[in-house]
Design goal:
Layout lengths: L1 H10 L13 E6 L10 H19 L3 E3 L10 H10 L3 H10 L4 H4 L5 H18 L15 H16 L3 E11 L4 E2 L5 E3 L5 E11 L2 E7 L10 E4 L4 E7 L2 E5 L1 H8 L5 E8 H4 L3 E4 L3 E7 L11 E4 L5 H12 L12 E2 L7 H9 L9 H15 L1 E2 L8 H15 L3 E6 L5 E2 L6 E11 L4 H11 L3 E3 L4 H10 L3 E2 L1 E2 L6 E2 L2 E6 L8 H5 L2 H4 L9 H9 L11 H14 L4 E5 L6 H12 L8 E5 L2 E3 L2 E2 L10 H8 L1 H10 L7 E3 L1 H21 L9 H20 L3 H22 L8 H14 L4 H10 L21 H23 L7 E5 L2 H12 L6 H5 L3 H6 L1 H16 L2 H9 L4 H7 L1 H8 L3 E5 L17 E4 L1
Parallel strand pairs: 1-2, 1-25, 8-13, 20-26, 25-26, 27-29, 30-31
Antiparallel strand pairs: 3-4, 3-19, 5-18, 6-7, 6-17, 8-14, 9-10, 9-11, 12-13, 15-16, 19-21, 22-24, 23-24, 27-28, 30-32
Helix pairs in contact: 1-27, 2-22, 3-6, 10-11, 11-12, 14-15, 14-20, 18-19, 21-22, 22-23, 24-25, 24-26, 24-28, 25-26, 26-27, 29-32, 29-33
Length: 922
Amino acid sequence: MREYEKEYRDAWSHIFEADPGEADKFYVNVAYPYPSGAMHVGHGRTYIVPDVIARYYRMRGKHVLFPMAFHVTGTPVIGISKRIANGDEKTIKLYRDLYRVPENVLEKFVDPDEIVRYFSSEYERIMRNCGLSIDWRRRFTTVYPQYSKFIEWQYLHLMEGNHVVRGAHPVKYCPQCDNPVGDHDLLEGEKAEIVKFVLIMFKWNDFLIPCATLRPETTYGVTNLWINPDVIYRKVMVDGQKWILSPEAAKKIGLQDHVVEDLGEIKGSELVDQTVSNPFCGEVPVLPATFVDPNMATGIVMSVPAHAPFDYIALRDLQSAGKYTSIKPVPLIVVDGYGECPARDAVERSGIKDQNDPGMETLTQEVYSAEFSGGRMLPQYGGKPVKVAREEFSQIMLEQHGSHVMYEFDVRNVMCRCGGTVYVRILKDQWFLQYSDPVWKEAVHEQLKEINIVPAEVRAEFDRTIDWLNDWACTRRVGLGTKLPWDKNWLVEPLSDSTIYMAFYTIAHKLIKLEAAKLTPEVFDYIFLGKGSSEGLPLDKETVEDLRSEFLYWYPYDFRFSAKDLISNHLTFQLFHHKALFPKELQPRGMVVFGMGLLEGAKMSSSKGNVILLEDAVEEVGADTVRMFLVGSAEPWQDFDWRRELVSSTRKQIERFINTVEDSLEADGEYPIDTWLISRMQEHIKNATAAMNSFQTRQALQEAYFAIESDLKWYRKRLPGDVRQSAAVNKISDSWIRLLAPFIPFSAQKLWEEIGGEGQVAFSSWPEPDESLIDPSLELAEELLSRTVEDIDSIMKLIQIEPSGLTLFISPDWKFSIFEKISRADNKGKVISEIMKDEDMRKRGKSATDAAKQITNLIHRLPPEVVERISSVSINEEEVFENAREFIEKEFGLPLKIVPAEESTHQKAQQALPFKPAIVIE
């Protein structure tokens, strides 16, 4: 397998280069990779699935463009190079041992450009090894000067459209890099969201103790504060006020537009049993709690035990030890399904034993959600719905009672790739994409309706993302990338320069040969928008017209493939940017969203070493095996699980396919069952085509391989004597090879040449079903026979006697009439009463009603397509079994009797049903 894969890989170097032509185009693309480490099998699936689709449409006669580039903008490679330069053993071990970078190359990784050069070349090499049908002429990286000119053009238009604004906003920030960071810049906490807390201020002597909350309306019900007695807190001056904060909180507050001055320290234990006050809850004590995390918000927590399960159970634990027994929860909110104190009800009902119970997080969310969506403040606290009271109370606290806003992540441990901790920082001079603009949002919502989203159910997630998306920090101070054209102190950040590069792909192979300085905004205006004239530009008219023509041939893209975790950023960002820049006819047409990858049931993670490198997998089992497994293990939008045992069996399946086709080359002879095999092939062609058109690549593979292999297993059973092959297998081989060509292109090409196929199978035509070769009656007859043989086999395994004979009782015609009526009825529960209105059925009495119930159950167990065929195709069951008598008797070594059920008094005969004869083994 490896030998012919290498031979064809070399031969395919340039055959997938696509230029405009007469045929209809199909433009498919996928999120380009960030080449900072070796590819694993999860990456493989990301690029192999769209390759299968590209190969399919190429065989359907489309002119297919499938390009690739490399995303190197931002700070990840800079962070990696810094860690390597600083001798970080964890990073060096990852690149030396897992990614197997040669020592002489690793030494050069102190230069980030060397990392980019090495891994982008490695990615291309491995993608070629996997047989990806990519037009490699269009390869670029996002630091090419021509690409930077394209980004400058994009941002000038966004600025002109008032989509880029300058302001103060909270951003993810790495002090060590002195730079805002995005998800691509993070080692941990990639999905962290910035959450807005309100600081409720409690007075202690001449200090203020702030407590962060998402539920300021519950301040009325505060019974105490929680403080960690083991933490050394800081006394600080914040904007002229004395505060007490955890050391971590003091650093965070200093990054959020506050002036912080250190005044010394105070032990948490010194504050235990002290009294603090707030005008809404009065004086309350400070209680000890080692569970308080100094790294979360301010490091001091206000306690509302009536409505916060964690607070209730923590107080209960203390009171169980005889401490602070005078503190009572203060109810504030009434909500259906809960009593006076919802937190107490929830904890006691759930049988929670202590605050370490893993169910506490879920329980807390349930209570909070119930109170927010359906809760109402008690009359003495205003009587308003919680969702209204929360907003109003927040404003009152911020405007009249000295509260402040504090931003925090919703997860712990957000780490930059440089190894530093990431914080939330308020940046005042930052540039933002104004995704909060309601007019822009509405335009994107409307455009989304025109886009084909696969699977359909994720459309709602796109709509939700469009709704909640807020202004996005689109620039950085340091890193690789394009300088903002009107403010050269800033670079466009990674996610923000990766929104419309699909347009750049269409002419990338030509643009990267041109002098970057000549790619002015006016040139791109004409190429992409048709604005202005092709004359008087820095490039000659012929070149500009050629670029414009090729762009219009390929654009818009037909389908984009990307992971579902990018819906919340990249996939939605690109919709905003397309809508802002391009006219309606150039908007994206479709997107396919991928599931995630698992390894032996656990999430893949390069940093944790839980990966199988793609190159290793290809070397071990072959590219076709890797491709077939990754496509066949799940539909694209489902999570897949790489399991070694199943991967090995996939290789054996390919070998069986090769052997079957090669064995058929010299096979001859014709047999009655041949017609069935050829008819079935037409069905599989139809089903595989329908699945591919719906991007159900797994289902398509099921039809193109497993269903055909299953047919061949039955076919061989039905051949006479010791015959194993026939000319019929050779007849279907041509179609079978072409059906599997998108999935296992190397093996398909090998067999294509062996059967005398011309040229490259990748450019042959996709099989078309021949309706004249489909025999529904024969297919139904064989389906009946195979199901009956299976039933007989099951009974034979159960009985404890030595059988001497086999009898099949065939269902009478009146039961077929019932079957047809029930199968076509909209309401199968009421159809029995309709059947019994028939005079002939009423005469049969209980026999008819019993048969109707049995047939209803049978219909529910049979596949819908089989039920439909039974109802629409007429076969003589007695004749089917009579024709197969020799086969059945040989299969079971028993003499066979075929008896119409109505001609027998045997009790079992009454159980005969359409498509399910009654079986008696004597």
